[in-house]
Amino acid sequence: MPNKMVRFTQRARRTLSLAQEEADRLQHHQIGTEHLLLGFMRDDGGLAGRALRDLGLDSRRVEELVARLSTAEARRTSSPLDLSPGTKKVLELAVDEARRLEHNYIGTEHLLLGLVRQEDGAALNILRQLHVSPEQIRRQVAAILQEQASSTQWHEPPISFQRPASRHFDYFLLRATSRTSGGISHLAVDLSPQVKDALEEALKEVGYSGFLLLEEKHLLLGLLQNRDGALRRFLLDADLDMDELIRQLRHSDDA
Question: Secondary structure of the chain in the HEC alphabet?
Fold first, then answer.
């Protein structure tokens, strides 16, 4: 399956945002798998939340166990929340689950399947306390997918994310769908402020498109929107209509 077809659904992104809200509410310094579990439960329409509720999980009980069992340290500053190593791994495993199921999108069901593939973590400890096993969750997800496949109901269709994606998640989602593990931060050269600004704009363009793959046109769009960049100044001096050029690039065929 081509990487450019891998995309996180609006509902999957909403679950991540809800997890961030839960971590922030509890004043934890990382978004852990326990917060992701709370995000599943808060999203009434998601397949993951439905599977967990079908297995008898109750939102209030999950919240109580998160508060009691969580070992996360309280946040002492207003610095941005980071994803815990376990949550980053869930994103990577969710991509793999989608590919194994031959789905060209990543929904909450894939996030949940990725979560239970981990051998340990706060979320799995909570599920054990509730007497719900990874195998039970896998069976329940499979049953719901089978039910939806035999009906006219779509399961978490790959709807393009039409508003700007949270910049907080762009790096992690791109990392999860990338074939490389180093990322920009592992380059052996330093980056100028202009290039860094252009890369920030490029990542936002990826979020606008809904595809979680950084491509050439996103880099070009980032360069064109960097008002201090040499390329933009050069093209403006050549009397090119910058707004029209950006519009055409955004609507160009990705094939």
Answer: CCHHHCCECHHHHHHHHHHHHHHHHCCECEECHHHHHHHHHHCCCCHHHHHHHHCCCCHHHHHHHHHHHCCCCECCCCCCCEECHHHHHHHHHHHHHHHHCCCCCECHHHHHHHHHHCCCCHHHHHHHHCCCCHHHHHHHHHHHHHHHHCCCCCCCCCCCCCCCCCHHHHHHHHHHHCCCCCCHHHCCCCCCHHHHHHHHHHHHHHHHHCCCCCCHHHHHHHHHCCCCCHHHHHHHHCCCCHHHHHHHHHCCCCC
Q: Provide the residue type at 171 as one letter.
A: Y
Digit-coded pLDDT (tens) for 26-61: 888 889 999 999 999 998 889 999 999 999 999 999
Residue the block writes with tokens 């499979």: 142
Query: Alpha carbon 181 to chain centroid distance?
Result: 16
- pTM here is 0.64
What CA–CA distances, in Å, run from 202 to 115, 177, 195, 225?
29, 16, 10, 9
Residues 35 and 37: their CA atoms lie apart, in Å, by: 5
Dihedral of the CA atoms 162, 213, 37, 120 (nearest 10)?
180
User: Could you tell me if 16 and 32 are in contact, meaning their C-beta atoms sit under 8 angstroms apart?
Assistant: no
- Cα torsion for 46, 213, 83, 102, to the nearest 10°? 40
